[in-house]
Amino acid sequence: MKRVERQATIEAPPDEVFAYLSDLEKLSEWQAGVVSAHRTSEGPMDVGATALVTREILGNRVEAPLTVTEYDPPRRMAIGSEVSGVKAHGTLDFAPADDGRATELIFAMEIRGSGFTGFMEGMIASAAGGDIDSSLQQLKDRFKGG
C-alpha cells in the first residue's frame, strides 16, 4: 500500500468547502484528471452514496465507481473505488483556520494493488500526488478572496 497526502489552506469556512467538495456531481470541476462524474444513488448524501467517475489516464478514459465510506460534515469525507484490481481510498479532512474564515484541508489517497497490479502502486501513487497538488491549487483558486 502506498499513501500520498497533501495539505492546503482554502480561503473559505469549512462548511462551505465541505458542501462544495461533497457534491459528487462537481468532482470534475475541481479534481484533476476527472472528466465527468454522475451520482448513481438516490437520497441524501451519506455513507453508501455512489457515483460513476470518468477519468483521463494516459490519454485513455476509464470509468471508476465511487462509494462514500465516511461522511461527517463539515469535518471528514472518504471515498473508495476499485478499478482493474487497484483499490483507491481518498480522504478529505477539514479543520477551521483563521478564526473559522478559512479551512485547513488535508487530501490523502491510499493506493493498494493486488496480484498482478501490486507492482503499479508506486507509479499510481506518484501520479495521484500530482493530481492532488493540481486539485488543491484549483480549490485555492476557486475560493480565493472568499
Produce a short descriptive summary.
With about 150 residues, the chain is an alpha+beta fold. The protein has helices at about 15-20, 25-30, 120-145; strands at about 1-10, 35-40, 50-55, 60-70, 75-85, 85-95, 100-115.
**Which regions are unreliable across 5 or more consecutive residues at pLDDT < 50?**
none
Distance between the termini: 37 Å
Write the CATH fold name.
Alpha-D-Glucose-1,6-Bisphosphate, Chain A, domain 4
Radius of gyration: 15 Å
Can you tell me the CATH architecture? 2-Layer Sandwich
Strands, total number: 7
Per DSSP, the total helix count is: 3
CATH class: Alpha Beta
| Series of H and E elements | EHHEEEEEEH
Q: What is the SS-derived class?
A: alpha+beta
Could you state the CATH homologous superfamily?
A: START domain
Strand content: over 45%
Tell me the quaternary state: single chain
Counted up, domains total 1
The largest sheet, given as strand count, sense and whether it forms a barrel, is: 7 strands, antiparallel
Bulk shape: globular
How are the strands of the largest sheet arranged?
1-7-6-5-4-3-2
The average pLDDT value, as a whole number, equals 89
